[in-house]
Each structure stands twice: as C-alpha cells, then as structure tokens.
Amino acid sequence: MKRLPAAALSLLLLVLVTAAATWFTSPRVIRHLLEQQATRAGLELRLEQVGRLRWGSISCGMLELSTTSTPSWNLSLDNVRLTWSTSLSPATALKQFQEGSLLVETVIEAGQATLHLPDRNLKLSDSGSELSAAIMLQRSADEGWKAVPQQLDYAITDASLDINTLHLGGISYPFSFCRDNDWKQQTAPLGISSIASNDAPLPARNFSAQIALSPELLGSELITLERCSVDLMEWKASTPALTYDNTASTAIFTLHLDDISLNEPGVTGTFSGYLPLTVTPKGITLRQGSLKSAPGSELFVRSSDGHPLATLHPAGRGTETLQDINAEIRFEGPLDRLTSLRVTDASARLFDGNIGITNGIYQLDEKRTVLPLTLQNIQLNDVIELEGDFSASFNLPVSGTLPLVISERGLGIEAAELASSGIALITHHPKPDSTRAASTDLFTTAALPVSYTLSSPSVLLDRSPTGKITIDFRLSEFVREKGRDKQLLQEPGGKLTLFADPGEPAVITLEHFRAGFLGGSIGIETVEYNISRHQAQFVLQLDNVPLQKLLSLQGVNKVLASGSVRGTLPVSIDGPVFEIHQGAMSAAQNGTITYQTSEEEMSAAHQGLQTTYAALSDFRYNTLQAAIDIAPDGESFIALQLKGHNPEFQDGREVHLNINVEQNLLDLLRSLTISGAVEQAITEKAQQQ
C-alpha cells in the first residue's frame, strides 16, 4: 500500500511513453494501447481529447487513473502534455534504440493534478505541476520493450491537502528520487503557508521544516523535523527539532520566540522566550515557559492630540515579564475536524503576582478568542510611568478578572473587575504660564504642585472592539492637596466613557458621579469634557453639606452654625475660566447661626450693630436660600435670604435678612463655600441698621 503512488507513477510514465512510441498513429490507437497497459496493471484509465502536437510531444485534455482495490485511489490530470527528448544525435539515438537501450528525458506537465484517497478522506491538489524523469527504454528477449525509470523530480510549489475538514494550503516540497540512491528521498524544505479546520484558519501559518518525505515515513516509530519555524498569529516562532512519536501520536518540542517585534501603534520594543510543548491528538501541554521583554520595550497611552500620557514598562521590575508559564490546551473534536481550542489550567507569574486562565476558548468557525484572565497581587510600581508634568507612585497590588475577547473586529474586554487595597499618589507639577491670569484660573492659581491620592480603587471595565471604553469606578477616598489646601472626597464613584465617538476621541463622558464631601455629598449626573479644548457643561449637585464644615474650610472662627445645605450649580468650563448661571442653594433643614463677639467688639460697636450682634447671638433660621451667578471673569452676584428668630432677642420675633454680595468668588468656589463673604456681608448689614 505504501508503494502504490510510486507504482502508479511508474505505470503512468510507461503508458505515456508507449503512447509516444505510437505518436504517428491515430488517437484511437493511442487510447487503446494506454487502456490495454492499465488493464494489465489492474487499473482503470479514462482519457479525453487525446491529440498530437509535434514530434517529441503528445497532449491529452484529461487523464484519469484509478483503482477499486483497497485502499482505493484516484489520480486525475487535466490539460496534460508529455514531451520527450534525448541528448544524443538522431543517428546515435536510432543506433542505441536498435540495440535495445535508449535513455529518454521526459517531462509531464498538467494544468491541475489531483490525487484522491477516499478511504482516508484525503485529497491532494496541485496546479501547474511538472514532473521530469529520466527513463531508460530497454528491450529483452523475454519481456520485449520496457521503461525503467532512472531519475524522478517533482517540485510541489503551491499544492493543497484536504484531510476530512483539515485543510493545508500553499504546500511546497521538492521531491527527488534516484535509482542510484535506492529511490530514497533526501532531506528537503517542506513549507505550508496556511492551516484551517472547517474553513476556519488556525492561528498558525507559514510553517517550514527540513524533512525527508517518503511513503515509509508513516510507518516509522519516530519522525524528526529539523529547523522548524512557524508564524503564530503575528509572531515568528521556531524550534531546532521536533520529534513525533508515531506510536503515541505525540510531538515534543520547545518553541523559541526570538526578538519578537512589538512595534505596533502605541507599542515599541521586542520580547523573547521559550515554550516547552507536548502535542497529542487531544491537545497541547505547556510547562515552565518564560517570556521576557527587552529593556526599552514600552507601551504608550496617548491623548487625542498624540501627547504621551503614560508609559508601561514590561521589563521595569528587572525579571522575566512572564515566568513559570503553564497551560493545558484541549482540542474540541479530532484534529481534522476541530471546532475550537480550549485553554484550561493556565497560569504564570507577572510583575511579582500571578495570572491565570481557567476556561479560555478559541472558536475556529467564529475566529473568536475568549481569555478570562484572573489577576492576583500584580505589582505596578516601577512598571507604570506618567508623562509630562505628572509623576506617580503606585502602591497598588491589583487583583481581579480581565476577560479578553479577540475577534476579527479587534480586541474587546467584557465586564472586567479589578480592585486594589493600596494607594496611588499622582503629583502634577504645573509649569508657570505667563499668558494666564492667576485670578481667572480655576485649577492652578499658582505654579504649586498638586497631589492626588487615590485609595482602594475598584473598577468595572468594558472595551468594545471599536475602542469604546467604559469604566465604573469606586474609591474609598480621593484627596487633593495643594499647598495648605486639602480637600477630601469620600467614596467617590461614577462611570467614565472614553472613545465612544471615533469622530470625537477627545471627549470623555462622566455619569452618575457621587462623592461624600464634608459630611454631605456632591454629585454630577452627566458631563461631557473635551480634553483637547478644555470645555464642559454640567450641574454640580450638593446635598446635606454641613454649614459648619463649609465655614471651617475657610478658617472662619467667629461664626458657628448647625444644619446643612443642598443645591445645584450649573457650571460651564471653557479653558482656564468657568461660569455659573442661575445656581441655587438652600437649607436642607432648620439650623442655627451664632456670631460670636468679644467684649471689646460689643463695647466698640454702635447701638445698631450691638442690636444685630444680639440677634445673631443665637439665630435660629428656618429659611436659608441663595441665588448664585458667576461670570467668566470671576465677578459674582449672590443673593442671600435668611429668615429665623432668636429666643432671647425681642421676645423671639422673626427676623428677615436679605443680603446681596457682589465680588470675585473664585477662591471661595474652589473650596465650595461662601462663608467668608456671608460673614462680611452680615457685618456690613448690621452696621447699616
């Protein structure tokens, strides 16, 4: 059975040479002679469009050779042309022919050659095939004329092989057999450009190896391929030798990844490593692999205008990026009818932490990969560096799940959950800007460093293949410090959306933001911020913010208050300035305001002011309302209305205070308080009475 293809090839040469010898006869005679030769060999031969071209050649539109024996096979050649020649002069060739021995060089060309073994569901197709042979024509008294092959050469350049639903494309291999070498194929380069199952490409292509292919190879106990290489996705991998145990159907080799380029948009550098693999009909086992990024390898995060925001240094901790890589990859279905590859029990060390995959899958029909990564104590110090005017330290051991989805549409992340019990400290070192007036700058009144401390962050992360990112975030605390000014937000959280509109990549959307502030809370329902134009419009909501904490924020020590306020402040930001239009604040419940005066103040005050001090010594308000407008230049107007009484003042009659405040309140708004202006306005009002 192993020699059937070779026997068929020899028979094919014999019948075609016989046809050449009778070239001068009619096509009907040629067909009869060929069919007669095939019948003697127990084969069936079908010919169509047998013709003659010129001396030394013969053509055939279709030639089909088959057998019904077991195992059955069928060889079909389309647009066949046989040419023959000899290097001898006509006289010398005729003399040797008469003497019964002549070496003839033949070439068989076919537009399409197909070998089909139905018992094995195997089909080999080759287009533009060409077989050259050196054949000795010999005559003996017993057998008459016969053709004895001396040399056969057949270079496959772009063939395909189908075994059930497994398809190998772009096959190349130079077959060469010689009688003097006992017809043994020598080691030669084998190439396979693509591999697919069920019409779905596998993540391996451009395979090459050195091997001596022969029919006897399938019966060998061990098969060795040398100097192998393959493209895995976009990576070039190689192994010096691959050993296949034919008895156990097992291949063992170490895959080397050398200087794999990371030069993609946002990524630069190279990585190398090795993956010891064992491949069986059931799957692939990986044990103790290692991948290491070369120094200088970096991943960039850039703003919409191309400026770098952060850099990830995979080699920042000075060890292998991925260590102790282990995995089990199971084939779903037989190799020639694969539907998917399933990843189980995958694990590795990453940045002094651990990552793992318990149930990943690559679906061949959908060309879709799902890798649910788990992360445990991934250390980010010395790995992430902020660019520009920012610096940071990340004492953040990250844990959680990161489900990656890779498809033809791109990379996606579905419902990732990441959290840390650590702290990130980010510091902004603003550069002085001589063109910006400090009095109109909301965020940087002076070139002082501003630090932000993020405690115990947790995020729910999604990324669509088109690049849209949504982040639901929570922190235990967010602290902003600038000089002596310190502001604290408790348990801030919200939803960020980035790159939702490819036409507006600079727009960031914040939704459902809430945070504890001074014992109350602040919130923003939705805001779109254009980071390239520094523009946004939103409504800042305050709820149950204690009055006393607002006063203490400004260091006011003469006014004591109870109760809390709520309100809405419609804010517009345009570059370094902002505007509030028709803002409103009111008391969340009744409370008290006590203006403390010293004996010196009371004695120095006139009668009207002493009366006001007396009323405010224990003022119990039932109404506190404020209308707030602030222009882009910082000029503001606040209309404050107070209603209430003092039980010890004029028998507790109700007192109404209407106070209008006109001034620049940028500094006060930065601390979300108007207490200083209120204190001054009350004093002025009292002096007028």
Structure description:
The protein is mainly beta and 689 residues long. Among the domains are: 1-186, no CATH class; 534-689, no CATH class. The strands form 2 sheets. The chain has a 38-stranded antiparallel sheet that branches. A hairpin with a 2-residue loop joins strand 31 (477-482) and strand 32. Helix 1 packs antiparallel against helix 2 (27-40) and helix 6 (607-615) packs across helix 8. The model is unreliable at 1-5, 22-26, 436-445 and 668-678 (pLDDT under 50). It comes from Prosthecochloris ethylica. This is YdbH domain-containing protein. Pfam families: YdbH-like.
List the helices and strands and how they pair.
Blueprint: H1 4-21, H2 27-40, E1 44-52, E2 57-67, E3 73-85, H3 90-99, E4 101-117, E5 122-140, E6 144-163, E7 166-178, E8 188-197, E9 200-211, E10 222-232, E11 235-245, E12 250-261, E13 267-268, E14 270-280, E15 283-293, E16 298-302, E17 308-312, E18 322-332, E19 340-350, E20 353-357, E21 360-363, E22 368-378, E23 384-386, E24 390-395, E25 398-407, E26 410-419, E27 423-428, E28 450-455, E29 458-463, E30 469-474, E31 477-482, E32 485-498, E33 507-517, E34 520-530, E35 535-546, H4 547-553, E36 559-561, E37 564-574, E38 577-587, E39 591-595, H5 599-604, H6 607-615, E40 619-630, E41 635-645, E42 654-664, H7 666-670, H8 675-688
Antiparallel strand pairs: 1-2, 2-3, 3-4, 4-5, 5-6, 6-7, 7-8, 8-9, 9-10, 10-11, 11-12, 12-14, 13-16, 14-15, 15-18, 16-17, 17-23, 18-19, 19-20, 19-21, 20-22, 21-22, 22-25, 24-27, 25-26, 26-29, 27-28, 28-31, 29-30, 30-32, 31-32, 32-33, 33-34, 34-35, 35-37, 36-39, 37-38, 38-40, 39-40, 40-41, ...
Helix pairs in contact: 1-2, 6-8
